[in-house]
Amino acid sequence: MNVSVEVTGNLLEYLDQKVKQGRYKSRSEAVRNAIRLMIQRDLEEQLRQSGLDPETFRDIQKETSGELLEKRFKELS
Questions:
Q1: What is the pTM of this model?
Q2: CA-based nearest residue to 50, from 60, 42, 39
Q3: Residue 15, CB half-sphere, CA atoms under 13 Å: how many?
Q4: Each residue of 27-77: pLDDT tens digit?
Q5: Which of 32, 53, 55, 67 has its CA 20 to 30 A from that of 39?
Q6: Separation CA 44–CA 66 (nearest Å)
Q7: How many Å apart are CA 41 and CA 77, to the nearest integer?
Q8: With 0-12 CB in 10 A as exposed, 13-18 as middle and 19+ as buried, what is 30?
Q9: Where are the domains of the chain?
Q10: Which of 8-12, 16-20, 58-62 bottoms out in mean pLDDT, i.e. has the lowest?
């Protein structure tokens, strides 16, 4: 789905600078990344409101993912 967004002035200059620096391949990629960062920030805020530290949550998530991978690897061996 395509969406048009009007970006003017300093915001457009900043966006174009990031693309020129090679940080992003296009304006669209930069905007998509900005939206992903907003989602991440919102999720971290929800975790904090639930009494969970986002960093602790990420550590648990990594550990759990690792355990699941190890279990699957053993099952395939």
A1: 0.68
A2: 42
A3: 17
A4: 999 999 999 999 989 988 888 888 888 888 777 777 777 676 677 667 665
A5: 67
A6: 22
A7: 40
A8: middle
A9: 9-76
A10: 58-62
Residue recorded with tokens 């457009």: 12
Q: Which two tokens stand for residue 36?
A: 């992903």
Report the alpha-carbon distance of residue 32 to residue 22 in Å, rounded.
Answer: 15
pLDDT of residue 31: 94
DSSP state of 32: H
Tokens 């190890």 locate to: 70
Single-letter amino acid, residue 67: E
For residue 51, give both structure tokens: 């009494």
